[in-house]
Amino acid sequence: MYIPRANEEKRVPVIHRLMAEHPLASLVTLGSSGLFATHLPVVIEQDGSEFGVLKGHISRANRQAKDLVADVDALAIFAGPQHYISATWYPGKLENGEEVPTWNYAVVHAYGPLRVVEDAVWMRAHLESLTDRHEAALPVPWKVSDAPEAFIRTMMNGIVGLEMPIRRLEGKWKMSQNRTERDRAGVLQGLASLGTPESRVIGQMVEAAPRGKG
């Protein structure tokens, strides 16, 4: 991924937080017919390594698990908050017109070898972990054990597990770091004027981003 120095995010806890908050990954692998992608929710777990390990599952009918070039790492893409940035928000628009729109966003790319897992114990633990994380905020969380055991076994027969130890982790936070203070102030004012949940999140991230220009 192309990452200008001003937009590079190296702090692993910050990157992991985005991955946890936006767990629907785009998993890209190379097979005999070329590139193949699946969109799936994943769990990032700490295993004592620098970057952790990703765990997920896909339908047994999905050919991605059957057609992998073993010596080429898989790529998991996590798309975080994003928002359009209007050229009208920059002071220079009124002064000389020499401004163009852009897009602010945060994304993570995780790379590593992909392993297909058929173990029932592994799968049960993964499904419980994935479910518990996303049910936690509900008034009455659903648990895997709420469903009949025979039904769960049948459902598990239709999926395969995927595990990817992360060998390389890239974070790109494009949040107006290369703009001047007055340009960032204009972006913040423009975002605030929209008053949407998305604009508020990006505004907070612009404010928190390290400054690249005076």
From TrEMBL:
Matches recorded under Gene3D superfamilies: Electron Transport, Fmn-binding Protein, Chain A
InterPro entries cross-referenced by the UniProt entry: Split_barrel_FMN-bd, TR_PAI2-type
Superkingdom of this protein's organism: Bacteria
Entry-linked PANTHER family: PROTEASE SYNTHASE AND SPORULATION PROTEIN PAI 2
Protein name (database record): Transcriptional regulator
Organism this protein belongs to: Granulicella sibirica
